[in-house]
Amino acid sequence: xxxxxxxxxxxxxxxxxxxxxxxxxxxxxxxxxxNTTPEQWRxxxxxxxxxxxxxxxxxxxxxxxxxxxxxxxDHLEVKKLVIRKSGQDSRSYIITLTQKGKEVVQVxxxxxxxxxxxxxxxxxxxxxxxxxxxxxxxxxxIS
Length: 143
Description:
Blueprint: H1 10-31, H2 38-50, E1 53-54, H3 55-62, H4 66-78, E2 82-86, E3 93-97, H5 99-119, H6 125-142
Antiparallel strand pairs: 1-3, 2-3
Helix pairs in contact: 1-5, 2-5, 3-4
């Protein structure tokens, strides 16, 4: 019987890489003096890129439940980075960035690009593009 080496598994590798990148990103974010987490930044950048949207759509795009998205939005609203506007239905809200939120996205986008550039520095440009392609293919397969 072939020995199973969990440290060679895709799950172990992607989880470990994700955790380490998260830690590096958090350190860079902390150095900006702004009090926002990578998880909050991902939500901000999604709204920045896609435009205002409701909480259900944000949850779908982030592969998170609506309660988790609501908590993130609550924190971002307290920090005055997003606002909730009434949607077509009195029970739904449209989330949009404030001016301060747009500024935070720009600062953190720069920090994120630096973190990714550093992480991918062991690859050629072609290898980095191939890695991204393969990871997206995996994500699409399991979503």
